[in-house]
UniProtKB/TrEMBL annotation:
InterPro entries: 6-PGluconate_DH-like_C_sf (IPR008927), 6PGD_dom2 (IPR013328), G3P_DH_NAD-dep (IPR006168), G3P_DH_NAD-dep_C (IPR006109), G3P_DH_NAD-dep_N (IPR011128), NAD(P)-bd_dom_sf (IPR036291). Pathway: Membrane lipid metabolism; glycerophospholipid metabolism. It comes from the Bacteria. The lineage of its organism: Bacteria, Bacillati, Actinomycetota, Actinomycetes, Micrococcales. Belongs to the NAD-dependent glycerol-3-phosphate dehydrogenase family. This is Glycerol-3-phosphate dehydrogenase [NAD(P)+]. It catalyses: sn-glycerol 3-phosphate + NAD(+) = dihydroxyacetone phosphate + NADH + H(+); sn-glycerol 3-phosphate + NADP(+) = dihydroxyacetone phosphate + NADPH + H(+). It comes from Leekyejoonella antrihumi. Its EC number is 1.1.1.94. Residues 5-158 form the Glycerol-3-phosphate dehydrogenase NAD-dependent N-terminal domain.
């Protein structure tokens, strides 16, 4: 039994705590709100996020981050990408020196255009070899229902990725090993923006041809950006790439797809923001991904047009027309 900590008890943090426990580990789950930690301790249920999931006895909860990470060999981070730096400023000194630090986040930081592993290294003062990224088609509600899924566990350290994969292997969760941290993070962040675009198209009443075209061309721009940043092109054909793109773009459980869908039906941005309570990473990351793409001179037309809707108030129908009338080009270019 390995002592593990999960910092963040939203959808994915709570579901990942269950994975670790079902894989045989002892888990301490940190909640920002004390009443959530108290509820989990008393009832083993996190009713605000995953009311159907009964957490195993080996999951305990606390709102004290120092207590959560004490003695942990694995520390899993599961908070919104845009708050991670602030969270780490609070937790950094308490993070155990030898532990593997696992990132579940799928976003790019606004302002710095940093990937999450870069934020963890900087703000948490963690050596890159200790950072492990877990990503794949992993809609939290399906995992909580123990439906089988796979993910890639990526790190520059073979020892760290093997350790994290080992402790995360549950009967319904199959980890694969990977060495491409950059590609895994870029794939996870960009797919949220493509899901916003697919959602918009669906909300406008478009069918499967439009969805498949956006998904395929979205994958092309993701891979193009990743390659310019040094990623392995194969990563985009794997679980963090095509796998997660398909799950997120096609599932009504995806918050990014749902957000886009609402915009596509004609709701205004302010109206959609007002009814969206949970983390929707693509909304902010579209801007930072665009900044990242410009810094390496890579065209990301779908991301650019989603950003135009979300940040400049353009109408989904107008950006769809803009995408359809771009200059003709070779498919592989
Ligand atoms: N939900 C899912 O199916 C999956 C989510 N992810 C990624 O995991 C990360 C976390 O997502 P979820 O757990 O779904 O989000 P969520 O919105 O369900 O939960 C976020 C958690 O972070 C906590 N938190 C801590 N500090 C915060 C702050 N300063 N501001 C706001 N919240 C703060 C919240 O209290 C909450 O418990 C995201 O990057 C997401 O893309 C990845 C795979 C699957
Ligand atoms: O990353 C996810 C599934 O792998 C979750 O997607 P959403 O954040 O759009 O719900």
């Amino acid at each position: 039994m390995t002592r593990t900590a999960v910092l963040g008890s939203g959808n994915w943090g709570t579901a990942y705590a269950a994975i670790l426990a079902d894989a045989g580990q002892e888990v301490c789950l940190w909640s920002r709100r004390r009443e959530v930690a108290d509820e989990i301790s008393a009832t083993h249920v996190n009713s605000a996020y995953l009311p159907e999931l009964m957490l195993p006895e080996s999951v305990t909860a606390t709102s004290d981050p120092e207590r959560a990470v004490e003695g942990a060999e694995i520390v899993v981070l599961a908070v919104p990408s845009q708050s991670l730096r602030d969270n780490l400023a609070q937790w950094g000194p308490a993070l155990p020196r030898d532990a593997a630090i696992v990132s579940l986040m799928k976003g790019i930081e606004l302002g710095t255009a940093s990937r999450m592993s870069q934020v963890i290294a900087e703000a948490g003062k963690v050596e890159l070899e200790r950072i492990v990224v877990v990503s794949g088609p992993n809609l939290a509600k399906e995992i909580a229902a123990k439906q089988p899924a796979a993910a890639v566990v990526a790190s520059s350290s073979a020892r760290m990725r093997a350790k994290v994969a080992e402790v995360s292997a549950a009967p319904y969760f199959r980890p694969y090993l990977g060495g491409d941290v950059v590609g895994t993070e870029i794939a996870g962040a960009v797919k949220n923006v493509i899901a916003l675009a697919v959602g918009m198209a669906s909300g406008m009443g478009m069918g499967e041809n439009t969805m498949a075209s956006l998904l395929t061309r979205g994958l092309a721009e993701t891979a193009r950006l990743g390659a310019a940043l040094g990623a392995d092109p194969q990563t985009f054909l794997g679980l963090a790439g095509v796998g997660d793109l398909v799950a997120t773009c096609t599932s009504p459980l995806s918050r990014n797809r749902t957000f886009g869908y609402k915009l596509g039906t004609g709701m205004t941005l302010a109206e959609v923001v007002a009814v969206t309570k949970q983390t929707t990473e693509g909304v902010k990351s579209c801007e930072s991904i665009l900044q990242l793409a410009r810094s390496v001179n890579v065209e990301v037309p779908i991301v650019e047009n989603v950003a135009a809707v979300v940040h400049e108030g353009r109408k989904p129908i107008d950006v769809l027309e803009a995408l359809m009338s771009r200059a003709r080009k070779h498919e592989a270019s």
